[in-house]
Amino acid sequence: MQVRQLLQEDDAVSPVIGVILMVAITVILAAVIASFVLGLGGSQQQTPQASFSWEYNNDSNSDVTEGIVEVSHDGGDSIKHNELVFRGNGFTDPFDQDPDTPDGVDASDQPSTEYPQLVDSGQNWDAKNASGNIGDTSAVVGGNTITIGAESDFEFTLVWEPQEGDTSATLSEKTGPDA
Predict the structure, then answer these.
(1) Spatial CB neighbours of 54, under 8 Å, sequence gap ≥ 6
(2) Hey, is 37 helix, strand or coil?
(3) CA angle at residue 152 from 148 to 155, to 5 degrees?
(4) Which is the most buried residue in 8, 118, 137, 140, by most CB within 10 A?
(5) From start to end residue, where is composition biased (Polar residues) (predicted)?
(6) Is the dihedral of CA 153, 71, 117, 134 positive or negative?
(7) d(CA 126, CA 160)
(8) How far apart are CA 136 and CA 153, in angstroms?
(9) What is the reported pTM?
(10) If you write DSSP's letter for every residue of 132-158 in order, what string do you get?
């Protein structure tokens, strides 16, 4: 067979290229459809955009290394209260040994900012401190505040953990004056 004759005969080239292209398109299309069916290409939850401020006050009648942190939602998206989790270290109840707190009264049940509503890591924003609603769930909206019992060297993080899904996002964090 001569080289010149081989270069001039291209009868089988077009059908072979056509079949390869059709198979490639079919494989790509099947992969895209499978990713959506299996949930791999589904939509991701949007992280809420909100601003929080933190203020530490040592106005308790206890040890000078303990006080109250007031966290305020300053604006932005409304967030379900049970999706906001406080994490970190330095949580305490500065009124635990306070002689002015009546026996049998749990300071975290008190609605005022005089008592801390949160005294341990891993607790959610309390529903009684959330004045909005998203569906049937209380929501934290601009102007809502909550108090946390804190040591002066605290390191707190406010984390958004949605009920559906495995994602989370840190929305705000704060360290104490002695951290």
Answers:
(1) 69, 70, 71, 72, 156, 172, 174
(2) helix
(3) 65
(4) 140
(5) 109-131
(6) negative
(7) 14
(8) 37
(9) 0.66
(10) EEETTEEEE-TT-EEEEEEEEEEEEEE
What are 134-160's pLDDT values in tens digits?
A: 999 999 999 999 999 889 899 999 999
Q: How far apart are CA 140 and CA 158, in angstroms?
A: 13
- CA distance linking residue 60 with residue 94, whole number of Å: 7
Q: Which of 73, 88, 72 is nearest to 150 (CA)?
A: 88
- What residue spans define the domains of the chain? 3-37, 50-175
Query: What does the alpha-carbon distance between residue 168 and residue 45 come to, in Å, rounded to a whole number?
Result: 10
Buried b (16+ CB within 10 A) or exposed e, 114-148: ebbbbbeeebbbbeebbbbebeeebbbbeebbbbb
Q: Determine the residue type at 107.
A: A
**Predicted confidence (pLDDT) per residue in 9-37, tens digit:** 666 667 788 899 999 999 999 999 988 88
Q: Distance between CA 61 and CA 97 in Å, rounded?
A: 9
Rg value, the chain, Cα: 29
